[in-house]
Amino acid sequence: MVDKDDRLSRVFGALADPTRRDMVARLAAGDATVSELAAPYDVSMQAVSKHLKVLEEAGLVRRSRDAQRRPVHLDAEVFDLMTKWIERYRQQAEERYRRLDDVLARMQGKPIAAATADENERHEGAAG
């Protein structure tokens, strides 16, 4: 489990920087060269390369060789790891809220099934 946690730490650490998050967002639209990635930033190519190295070490991007081009690719597999981690805690938080809703319903004298239905309607109304 330590390996996965270390990888998550590297991923979240890499994404803590707004420039790297922006690079990941741009790579989601398609591959790009280092020069193309560097274009919108007022930093040196060396700084962009350092950002890319952090993203590579976290497993978010990889570089390949395509004739004279060296495109940078987004590696979507790492997003599955992040999503599973986030989803686990989201489900736990939702379960705590459901239990709290049940306690509040009992305090208000509502049947729990009715309170749950009321809460579901509120969530659906907020989402829609």
From TrEMBL:
Every HTH arsR-type domain range: 1-93
Organism per entry: Nocardioides ginsengisoli
Sections of the chain in a coiled coil: none
PROSITE patterns per record: HTH_ARSR_2 (PS50987)
UniProt-recorded name of the protein: ArsR/SmtB family transcription factor
InterPro entries, A to Z: ArsR-like_HTH, HTH_ArsR_DNA-bd_dom, WH-like_DNA-bd_sf, WH_DNA-bd_sf
Top-rank lineage group of the source organism: Bacteria
